[in-house]
């Protein structure tokens, strides 16, 4: 394998738990106006409706929470709640980066094994750059691509730019929808390392269990072994 | 000149007027709580304080407006106002891109003249990609770099990546602070095309009028002539 590309959020470092913690607090704050089980549904609908304009990331998430709070409370939600949502967004943006198990060793091992190693991550440019800097991994990557959406055309373009054709490139990530399916469609290899925890409803998809260029690993530790077998 | 790099906002297309129009409406909405001349000052202070976490762009601007609205009204601003600020943000994000005079012809002429042409723009990844797509200029650029901050190190890196050393690269932009001073510091050339209209206070800086690698043009139309003289 010439090129090994890693996803960032929930592949190299924990990310979803930050969103879930904020969403739990959001549910508690809005409980006077909306039952928690409906609120999650309303928030998701707002997030998905806003995705085309806001993209992925914390700032868009906060704006969608505020919009949902005003909607479900019929304009009754107090400013103290809206202010707290903004402060929680800042807290999320400033949050330390916690690497997943065996990540630092594995990326270093893969690089030392002669593979070209890059990061392909979705989201807010500034936020992702800051996370990478705080992760301590920045020096391991030959290139970093922050993208607004991960589709087949994107992988073709990046695998051509950084690798030498899709058949010699592998993407390692936790999201079946973003890191696996479009890579396989582009002709590349995909290693799926599921994240332990609930998956954001918008990212859910069925893993292509029997695809010849698909592998599923329980954790990062298995990656060098898998690579050496290809 | 081997490489000609263009800034996007207020160099290739109008951008500031969108922010000023929203800010005018913001002042009108908040007038019951804060005199307009103080409000601008309070908003700028909030924006600058949030820049490190939010970066540049419309979503951060909206969040800073909401934060300022709650502050200056002592929590009295109604939800209808906050909701309108979010909707105005979406309106800004979806706004058509209006090119400045002679931009399309000039970029095409420069490219046809054998220069490598790229775009270096600050801001939100998704927003900038969408604007470039709507501008109709995307095919003219050999590369597009959306960056979170423009400093000397950034220009050194991008001029090495896309050009062949700073002394054969020129940056064309409207912001003295972001497009001119750091480029000259890096050893490159800088062409300043001031935007007709007020400059965001955070971007204001004195132009280096007598620097040997600095030029000031009244509009895009003068660029091919300037390039041919170098």
TrEMBL record, chains A, B:
InterPro entries, alphabetized: HAD-like_sf, HAD_sf, PGP-like_dom2, S-2-haloacid_dehalogenase
Keywords: Hydrolase
A Pfam family it matches: Hydrolase
GO terms assigned for molecular function: hydrolase activity
Protein name: Haloacid dehalogenase domain protein hydrolase
Taxonomic classification: Bacteria, Pseudomonadati, Pseudomonadota, Alphaproteobacteria, Rhodospirillales
């Amino acid at each position: 394998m010439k090129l090994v590309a890693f996803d960032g959020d929930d592949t190299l470092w924990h990310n979803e738990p930050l969103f879930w913690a904020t969403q739990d607090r959001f549910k508690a704050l809005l409980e006077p106006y909306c039952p928690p089980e409906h609120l999650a549904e309303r928030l998701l609908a707002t997030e998905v409706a806003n995705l085309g304009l806001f993209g992925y990331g914390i700032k868009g998430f906060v704006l969608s929470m505020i919009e949902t709070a005003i909607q479900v409370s019929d304009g009754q939600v107090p400013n103290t709640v809206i202010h707290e949502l903004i402060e929680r967004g800042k807290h999320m943006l400033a949050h330390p980066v916690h690497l997943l198990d065996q990540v630092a060793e594995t990326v270093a091992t893969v690089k030392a094994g002669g593979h070209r190693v890059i990061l392909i991550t979705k989201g807010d440019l500034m936020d992702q750059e800051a996370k990478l800097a705080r992760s301590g991994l920045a020096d391991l990557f030959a290139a970093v691509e922050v993208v607004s959406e991960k589709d087949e055309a994107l992988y073709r373009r990046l695998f051509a730019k950084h690798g030498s054709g899709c058949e010699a490139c592998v993407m390692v990530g936790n999201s079946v929808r973003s890191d696996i399916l479009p890579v396989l469609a582009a002709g590349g290899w995909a290693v799926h390392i599921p994240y332990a925890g609930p998956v954001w409803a918008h990212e859910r998809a069925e893993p292509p269990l029997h695809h010849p260029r698909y592998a599923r690993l329980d954790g990062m530790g298995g990656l060098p072994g898998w690579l050496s077998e290809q």
